[in-house]
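[Q] Does anyone have a clean structure-token version of this?
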Amino acid sequence: MMMNRNRPVHMELSKIRLPLPGLVSILHRISGLLLFLAFPLLLMMLQSSLRSIETYTLLAGLLRHPLSRLSLLVLAWAALHHICSGIRCLLIDLDFGGRLAQARASSMWVIAVSLALTALVGARLW
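[A] Here you go.
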């Protein structure tokens, strides 16, 4: 068996350029993980807001802080990106947009739509 001697021995990950569909796929996984990790905190916030008027006003005060709003905006992006990318994956699984040019175009649409929707949510949130 002959080995290809032109292959690199040590890959420099900083020099590898990931195609846009690959980037969207990685962002889909990151957004899913972010939502999974934030879900218990969001449930605890909901539970405490329903407990009494005092805990509701305390939580409302905490959520007025700019860092809290930024965190909610990141979670909104994660949810919107995950939904848009999930729809894209579903369509590819159904044999719509599986070719390379179509995959690149749908990846651009996922990023554009998720960012636009996040901007709309952010304008409403802020």
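[Q] Thanks! Anything notable?
[A] The helical segments are 20-51, 53-63, 66-93, 100-125.
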